[in-house]
Amino acid sequence: MNLKAQVTLFVAIATFVLVAIFAAGLFLSVGATNRAALNESRRILEVMWTGKLADESRTQDVIATELRRDIDLLNELSHPTRPTLVELAADLLESVNPDRYRVLILDVTLKPLYANTDISPEIGDDLAISLSDMARESDYTSFASHNFGDGNAVYWSKIAPLRFRFQIVGYLLIASPVDQITSEFSSSVGIDTQIVRNGDAEVPGQQSSSALYLPLEKAGSHEILEFIRMNRNFDQAFIETRWILWIGGVIVLIFVGHVLGGLFWTVKRAFLPLDAAITVIDKLTRGETPPELNLSAGTMETQRLSKAVEALRTAQMDKEALGKLKAELTIASELQQSLLPSRPLRQEGLCLVGQMVPSQEVAGDYYDYFEIDEHRVGFLCADVCGKGAAAALFMSMSRTVVRTLAMTGASPADVLTKANQTLSEENDKNFFVTLFYGIVDRQARTLQFANAGHCSPILVTEDGEASYLPETEDLVLGIFGGIDYSGMEISLDGVRLIVSYSDGIPEAFNASDEQFGNERLLSMVRKHPNEEPEALIQSYQRELGSFTKGQPQSDDITLCICSLD
Question: Which of 156, 191, 461, 467 has the fewest CB within 10 Å, making it most exposed?
Fold first, then answer.
């Protein structure tokens, strides 16, 4: 059998096998579709039900937060005088529907002190047991069976400890009736939903073709209290799916037949140049005059194949080079982050914390803080011109120079003067860095500082007043040598925070191309004068993020906060 016949037989057998496999798959897919539809519907309904419970938990969290924040209520709870406690709680829960959310305030022995329902806040044995099971050191949410005096019922319950001066002074129970949750769920998703008691004969399992049963489990013990029955009817959908599968299968069979027919025709044409070459050789062996061969088609196909292979090879090389570059930038970013302080600097009456968020893989901003002696600490915030790898290298060099000089205990003005001389001597690329350097003397409660063209830090007093440090009007570091930098010293009496930052904060843009600006920056730092510096950094980042709303970060963002007690 010649090669052409072998290829023709192979294509015919492949056609038969492919058609048989597809037909078998079509029959199997009809049955699998039913099971897949049931499983998919279960997943969708479970996700929607979980989302409903999450919404319920968020509402309960709002109620709990309102009560936890009321100092008067917590104070009364720690030394309860019931009339005052009841009045305070009633005022706070005035807008809460007692039929929708049942709220109990209890002391540490789980004795009820207030209830927002008409029933007397006396705990029966059933409710006492359920509360005892739920009481924790932290918030606890679960399905639970309670008896508030009107019979046992299942509730989506949250019990939260109430703390005052770092001690638990009571508990708060917020219970949402499951029957009302399921009623709202039915209305919102358009599915008939019912509550089925555990043990009822009608529960066939957790899934059937007509209904889905979701168990309401008590967390921890996994005890099933009730089931949520969600009715569904997929018969018509299954029929339509089967018809679609059959029609689609026939269309695909026709398509596959045409494709394989085209493949057979293509193979036959592909052998034409080979048949012509064999005919020429055969005629030459018999001494006959051979026909002229058409070599242009074969040459064109060879050229196209060569071009395709070369393009693939080039693309693969570019992909590997890009992968190596990304890996190198990742390593560079990790090395750069390792140069920054790894933890806050804490001394008696003082705490320094910083954060740098790069706009690219590597950054040009940095901050630093360190102990100089037992009474003095130094801190700085800097911004190298430009971004990317070159700026990051200059950043590393300037950090090393400034830190080495600063650790000698020299004044900020002397440190910047000597650092500028060193950086400007071998700066062929004309890089420069803006830098603020300050020394806090805890004993004298003073701040010495020098500023090389950097954003002026902000002083925040204990009562929330914010103002910029005086400007020194000195040039940036690294451009011109032989410059003497000036320094200043101020008293820190009454000062709570020193907030140094890079221009990536005031120059951040939102979707309307509007800058964050200095006024918003001052307003932001005034809001939380007495927070810990770690929390302040997170608060500032959240406020900046709410302003930019996902806009790409155009510059590195750096913060260095000094907190004084």
Answer: 467
Kindly give, in sequence order, each residue whose CB lies less than 8 Å from that of residue 138, ignoring residues fewer than 6 positions away: 161
Strands 102-106 and 112-115: antiparallel
Is there a contact between 332 and 389 (Cβ–Cβ < 8 Å)? yes
Strand partners, 262: none
522-550 b/e with 16+ CB inside 10 Å = b? bebbeebbebebeebbeebeebbeebbee
Using 50, 70 and 90 to split pLDDT, how confident is the model at 2? low
For 303-353, the pLDDT digits (tens) are 443 444 344 445 555 666 666 666 656 665 666 677 789 899 999 989 999
Give the position of tokens 């050789």: 281
Alpha carbon distances (Å) from 455 to 202, 472, 474, 501: 72, 11, 12, 7
How many other β-carbons are positioned within 10 Å of the β-carbon of residue 249? 17
Q: What is the mean pLDDT of residues 500-525?
A: 92
pLDDT digits (tens, 9 = 90+) for 411-422: 999 999 999 999
Whose tokens are 């221009």? That residue is 503
Between the CA of residue 212 and those of 204, 386, 562, what are the distances in Å?
10, 60, 58
